[in-house]
Amino acid sequence: MATPMWVSAALIILISASSASGQGKVTDNPADELVAVVNSNRTASKLLSLYSSQGLACIALQYIKAYQGDCGAVGGPKAKKPADSEFAETFAPACGVEASTLTPITGRLLGCQSKYLKPSEAFSEILMKNNKSMEIVQSKNHTEVGAAVSGSDSGSYFWCVMFSSGKSNSSFVLEGTTAKISRPGCFSGANDVCSGAVLSRTPRVWPAAAAGLIALSYAFGF
Question: Which controlled-vocabulary keywords does the entry list (predicted)?
């Protein structure tokens, strides 16, 4: 039996939509890759690798979100930063991190740019601004690290790396087994596949496919 023309056309639309959704998908997490770059830099300088803390990384993502997409507030004469009180009052609860287990942040790197870069490029071109940035990465005071990356509706991409001197089994302890996943954005240590598609707004693939089917139904009189 021949397949009706409208069914064939509908299948083409659905397959195309699925392909579009898969084009930006990756099999890893850019925040995890950023942690790997940081640790590679440290081991190249004969320093110890840092423990990848899921709780600290989630905190880093909340830190990014506090900028509300304002890339101009990162660095330069108009630089701003969230108040320290927000770590316990806002960031920890949003991540499911027990506030009593927060430990001092021994260093942080933050950068923002309108173009998305690979983690290695973001590290060298955005986060390594000067000698001070390298000193932060190679400090012997750190024991753990967490990274996050997120896009915004304004088209800006934020990268953040946070370091702490806490102990891996007693700092940034999660209320559950995993930190709360929040979108948009990715954070390290979450065992979460995080593609470029979730760094900013999630592509609306199925609504587009549905619209195509509706148009077909009118065209063929259904």
Answer: Signal
Strands, E assignment, the chain = 51-52, 105-113, 144-151, 157-164, 186-187
> Could you tell me if residue 184 is inside a domain?
yes
Q: What is the pLDDT of residues 35-75, one digit of tens each?
A: 999 999 999 999 999 999 999 999 999 999 999 999 999 98
Residue closest to 69 by CA, chosen among 84, 80, 59, 85: 80
Q: How far is 189 from 149, CA to CA, in rounded Å? A: 13
Rounded CA separation 97/174 (Å): 4
Let me know if residue 30 belongs to a domain.
Answer: yes
> Tokens for 36?
């790997």
Roughly how many angstroms between the first and final C-alpha of the chain, as a whole number? 20
Q: What is the CATH number of the domain that holds 132?
A: 3.40.33.10
Name the β-bridge partners of 218. none
- The values of phi and psi at residue 123, to 5°, are -65, -50
**What is the predicted pLDDT for the residue at 199?**
62
Q: Evaluate whether residue 203 is within a structural domain.
A: yes
AA letter at 65 = K
Q: Which residues contact 116 (CB under 8 A, 6 or more apart)?
A: 151, 157, 196, 199
- Computed from CA positions of residues 113, 118, 124, 128, in that sequence, does the dihedral angle turn out positive or negative? positive
Distance, CA of 85 to CA of 5 (rounded, Å): 62
